[in-house]
Amino acid sequence: MKKTALFPGSFDPYTNGHHDIVMRGLNIFDEVIISIGHNTSKKNRYFDIDFMVEKIKKTYKNIPAVKVIVYDELTSSLAKKHDAKYLLRGLRNTTDFEYENTISQMNRYLNESLETVFLITTPKYAAISSTIIREVHKYGGNVNKFLPYKV
Ligand code: ADP
């Protein structure tokens, strides 16, 4: 049976840290669906959603096992729709752990066949966060080194 994992997040922007988790996820799963959580009524992103979808699609154009979708519903319901039994998430530090622990418990409560699989960050990406990249970009810094595509 095909093993599908959702990789949910805001990906504002999608970074080399995210890319590393997806590529390593492909060693475990047959398909990884990068699922960008986006509330269409709230325009509170820094990087435009369509721009980000296009950049991610381009990044994986030669890897059909990676898909990208935008969603605005419970992640646990989205997983059922795509027949995904796994959520893929990355862990950088204890702050990530505290946050992920809560979400993972809730997701299993909402959809009990859903397991979250955590991959520990690769050390060279441990300091990369979407937040810091937004800050640097906002003040004119070049962030391309931290992204698997160019902005
Ligand atoms: P969210 O908005 O749900 O926190 P993000 O887009 O920030 O989502 O991140 C999605 C997932 O990727 C989260 O599990 C996060 O911990 C993980 N992640 C983000 N940056 C890195 C990184 N540099 N290394 C490993 N995992 C990461």
From TrEMBL:
Pfam families: CTP_transf_like. Its EC number is 2.7.7.3. It is found in: Cytoplasm. Gene3D superfamilies: HUPs (3.40.50.620). The keyword Nucleotidyltransferase applies. Substrate binds at residues 10, 42, 75, 89. Pathway: Cofactor biosynthesis; coenzyme A biosynthesis; CoA from (R)-pantothenate: step 4/5. Belongs to the bacterial CoaD family. Homohexamer. This is Phosphopantetheine adenylyltransferase.
